[in-house]
Amino acid sequence: MRVLVIGSGGREHALVWKIAQSKLADKIFCAPGNGGIADLAECIDIKAEDIPALIDFTRREKIDLTVVGPEVALSLGIVDEFNKYKLKIFGPNKKAAQLESSKVFAKELMAKYKVPTADFKIFSAGGGDAAKKYIEKIGAPCVVKADGLAAGKGVVVTKSVDEAKQTVTLMMQEKIFGDAGTRVIVEECLEGQEASILVLTDSKETIPLVSAQDHKRVFDHDQGPNTGGMGAYSPAPAVTEGLFSEILDKVIYRIIDGLAKEGIDYRGVLYAGIMLTKSGPKVLEFNVRFGDPETQAILPRLNSDLVEVMLATADGKLTKFKKFGGLKWDNRACVCVVCASGGYPGEYEKGKEIFGLDEAEKMKDVMVFHSGTKSVPRPSSLVPRFVTNGGRVLGVTGLGNTIKEAIEKTYQAVDKIDFKGMHYRKDIGRKAL
């Protein structure tokens, strides 16, 4: 088979890495890809949002399966457009993608189908003053969310009433997230440990992946602003077997059934960000694609053929796939630490040379997934060098017999890597201990 992966981050590198292990994958392309992905796939200079160009490429190259990484392409309806040309694609359609592209849609659907989530109120365009009055009424801490996509930065946990009101001003009046902040949600601040639960579903059948925990804040001990994710580990010991079943019953199955009742067919990965509160699991957010960096911590534990299960999902044949044994997993733990550019998630510089990649990659059971990198020619050498080209630069990932062992191995690999301004959290996975 000829497979195309759309996207350019660490998640896409992990997907390409796993697809390359499939007995079904003969040739892999990635659009647009990155420096590290180029070792495994032919990178094509087409942006993830350029749907007409992606369709042309897919038809011309006779691609058998397209896998969508980032949420923006899904929210723009790439699956619907591919379906018009009968091109096989893994991911939910535009209506289903609203679960992530519109937090208002997701919240209203959760309320309708009794999916546990934080108490909330929605404020539409021009409702900034009403939102501020509501904040005064409920007090702080509270959470202010932009309705639309904001690259993982549209959720602000505010610690004071003034900060919350200022966030509303930034989103609704100063439009720091553009149209994404036309509507905002103000909701109660949930407390507890977070967990990431991902499942594959074709609307009729659902197959869960192993649990994981993400680390959103930029600094140790969950301090500083939210990021796209500074690291992850799998499994998450806080998600016991009983709790996992409860999350599937009260969250995953209810939302998939709710979508079906609304006439929406969901095929692909469904990601639920869960807060494990004292009163039970509650949904923080839904994503309609593989999480980043959770994917980097989950896929190294997958022993099954990823292409097989993706095909079964896209074809609506997960029931048959499950009947023949479902997914097989490595019992070891996996930890991913994100190495970011100095200043991220704010302003940062690009073009810093990355050193030590070879030494890290030589380590047993260590994978280095590239996120924001670019390969540039090295004078008088055929071997290119890598430079930084994004906020999150690398996802250094290690497997171990225990979480503790996986943490130690991953940080040993991180210690071998260096670039100017490199920043990473030192406490990824510590909660599991």
Strand order of the largest sheet: 3-2-1-4-5
The radius of gyration computed from the alpha-carbon positions, rounded to a whole number of angstroms, is: 21 Å
Characterize the biggest β-sheet. 5 strands, parallel
Report the helical percentage.
25-40%
Poorly predicted residue ranges: none
In round numbers, the mean pLDDT is 95
Structural class given helices, strands, pairing? alpha+beta
| Tally of individual helices | 14
Description of the molecule:
This protein is of the alpha+beta class and about 425 residues long. It is about 30% helix and about 25% strand. The protein has 14 helices and 22 strands. The protein has helices at about 10-20, 50-60, 70-75, 80-85, 95-100, 105-110, 130-140, 160-175, 240-260, 295-300, 305-315, 320-325, 355-360, 405-415, and strands spanning about 1-5, 25-30, 40-45, 65-70, 90, 120-125, 140-145, 155-160, 185-190, 195-200, 205-210, 215, 215-220, 225, 230-235, 270-275, 280-285, 335-340, 365-370, 375-380, 380-390, 390-400. The strands form six sheets. The chain has a five-stranded parallel beta sheet with strand order 3-2-1-4-5. A five-stranded antiparallel beta sheet has the order 12-15-18-22-19. It has a four-stranded antiparallel beta sheet with strand order 6-9-7-8, with helices on both faces. Helix 7 runs antiparallel to helix 8. The relative contact order is 0.13.
